[in-house]
Specification:
The protein has 401 residues and is α/β, with parallel strands linked by helices. The chain is built from 15 helices and 13 strands. The strands form four sheets. The protein has a seven-stranded mixed β-sheet with strand order 2-10-9-8-7-3-4. A two-stranded parallel ribbon has the order 1-12. Strands 5-6 form a two-stranded antiparallel sheet. It is globular, with a radius of gyration of 21 Å. The termini are far apart. 44% of the residues are buried. The model has no long low-confidence stretch (mean pLDDT 97). Bound molecules: 4'-deoxy-4'-aminopyridoxal-5'-phosphate (PMP). The site of 4'-deoxy-4'-aminopyridoxal-5'-phosphate has 12 residues, from helix 5. It holds the Pfam family Aminotran_1_2. It is an enzyme of class 2 (transferase). One of its GO terms (cellular component) is cytosol.
Length: 401
């Protein structure tokens, strides 16, 4: 008998599949709107100039390559926490912020899930937005949690289903873990307004739910680091204990270096100390010591005032290009008289937009026009450029009619 004869073939990964099809397409008109990474106007990956400068500083210092402590590079994790919460946050003064370096945002979600699975009651549900980043369910299920969806996106308005969301959160068992996208919701691009966050917090407080923020796009969404941290700061200010999974993949363009943090904000210094000791045990089992290089780059940027200022400019540049592409795409669809309302393209924010195209239209735009996007109609705004936007607008117009 074979050891692995009972292992079935896993379903193919939808995104990887898409990029294989894109690569095989020989048309000169082809456009990749699947990628979840920033591209410049020439469709090329963009190394942030501030990252190049930080790398030069690091190499001049001829660094060694010893192990980091389990918690990671302290100069990085503490400034990463400051970036999230703001430097004057009372949680710092009260020593109730716990921060661990992780394998980017994915590792932060996983570390948090594994830690919470040990200390939350066994039947605690994890609530995920419908839809959400495909890996959330995978991560929380792997950590042993049962997941359930809360209503979030309303296909009829291509916006937030606030009433549905509040109702789902209200109907869920008390003390559930609620995964919230801090900004630039993936895949829809639909974020609550500040007033809507307040209503969400009201229900969560009444229900004793635990907020688990996934923050993968701070500064990349609006171009403003503080503005994109609003929801997290607001919940902390209201006295919630919460978790944050933080990624520097998008905002520093350090995708492959896997730079991230898992933070827990507790009520007291004593529980922070206990939580810190337990997260350390959990992280030890998964990675022992986090990787050094990317954390050094991020730390150099975050702790050097001139580089911090330059990073803010780099972020405005990336977010600005994406926001311009949103405007330009909408304008073209309006000019073409494409049936439907296209305001959602500019109302949505961040890397992605939910176009509202049906699976049939997504298939048609691929076969007829060589434009590749996920079957739910999500497009990566970073895949658009001044070179392909006319083609994309005309193609959308064609498949919608
Ligand atoms: N959460 C969300 C919502 C994301 O969109 C992503 C990136 N696709 C991640 C987490 C994690 O990305 P990474 O592990 O590359 O930081």
């Amino acid at each position: 008998a074979q050891v692995f004869s009972n292992v079935p073939l896993a379903p193919p990964d939808a995104i990887l599949n898409l990029s294989t099809l894109y690569k095989a397409d020989e048309s000169t008109q082809k456009v990749d709107l699947g990628v979840g990474a920033y591209r410049d106007n020439e469709g090329k990956p963009w190394v942030l100039p501030v990252v190049r400068k930080a790398e030069e500083i690091i190499f001049q210092n001829r660094p060694e390559h010893e192990y980091l402590p389990i918690g990671g590079l302290a100069s990085f994790t503490s400034s990463a926490a400051t970036l999230l919460l703001g430097k004057d946050n009372v949680a710092f003064k009260e020593n109730r912020v716990v921060s661990f370096q992780t394998i980017s945002g994915t590792g932060a979600n996983y570390l948090g899930a594994r830690f919470l699975a040990k200390f939350k009651p066994q039947d605690t549900l994890v609530l995920l937005s419908q839809p959400t980043w495909a890996n959330h369910q995978n991560i929380f299920n792997t950590a042993g949690f049962t997941t359930q969806n809360y209503r979030y996106y309303d296909p009829s308005t291509l916006g937030l289903d606030l009433q549905g969301m509040l109702q789902s959160l209200g109907d869920a068992p008390n003390g559930s873990i609620v995964v919230l996208h801090a900004c630039a919701h993936n895949p829809t691009g639909v974020d609550p307004t500040q007033d809507q966050w307040q209503q969400i917090a009201d229900v969560m407080q009444a229900k004793g739910h635990f907020p688990f923020f996934d923050c993968a796009y701070q500064g990349f969404a609006s171009g403003d680091l503080d503005r994109d941290a609003f929801a997290i700061r607001y919940f902390v200010q209201r006295g919630f204990e919460c978790s944050v999974a933080q990624s520097f993949a998008k905002n520093l363009g350090l995708y492959g270096e896997r730079v991230g943090c898992y933070h827990v904000i507790t009520k007291t210094e004593q529980s922070a100390n206990h939580v810190r000791s337990q997260v350390a045990r959990t992280s030890r089992a998964i990675i022992s010591n986090p990787p050094l290089y990317g954390a050094r780059v991020a730390s150099t940027v975050l702790n050097t005032p001139e580089l911090m200022a330059e990073w803010r400019d780099n972020l405005k540049f990336m977010a600005g290009r994406i926001i311009t592409m949103r405007d330009e795409l909408r304008q073209r669809l309006v000019q073409l008289g494409t049936p439907g309302n296209w305001d959602h393209i500019v109302n949505q924010i961040g890397m992605f937009s939910f176009t509202g195209l049906s699976p049939t239209q997504v298939e048609a735009i691929k076969t007829k026009h060589h434009i590749y996007m996920t079957s739910n109609g999500r497009i990566s705004m970073a895949g658009l450029s001044t070179h392909n936007i006319d083609h994309v607008a005309r193609a959308i117009d064609d498949v919608v009619r």
